[in-house]
Design a protein that fits this description.
Layout lengths: L16 H11 L9 E2 L5 E2 L9 H13 L5 E4 L4 E4 L3 H4 L5
Antiparallel strand pairs: 1-2, 3-4
Pfam families: MUG113
Protein name: GIY-YIG nuclease family protein
């Protein structure tokens, strides 16, 4: 629904493309653009593949996917970078 300008290309090997796409969507979900636009027939559409992420963060994500460390990080859109996962979930529900 929008023109695309290729900003970078990457070569990844031995990775299932569908799983990679799903992973990228999960990683950058906090930066998903929440917008509703009209398609060519005037019907509202909410794009699910538009993210507000700088190129350096995408490069960082690719490197973390390559080296297998991506599971140790979450993307923080306020800082526009990956941060180490915290242990907050361990304390969840303990009333603190």
């Amino acid at each position: 629904m929008a023109n695309v300008e290729v900003a970078a290309t990457y070569e990844l090997y031995n990775i299932n493309r569908t799983k990679l796409e799903n992973l990228i969507h999960r990683i950058f979900d906090p930066a998903r653009l929440e917008i509703e636009i009209m398609d060519r027939f005037g019907r509202p559409v909410t794009p699910r593949e538009w993210f507000l992420v700088p190129l350096f963060a995408i490069n960082d994500a690719v490197e973390k996917i390559k080296d297998g460390t991506i599971a140790n990080f979450v993307y923080d859109p306020m800082q526009a970078r990956f941060v180490k996962r915290s242990n907050l979930s361990i304390n969840a529900g303990d009333g603190e």
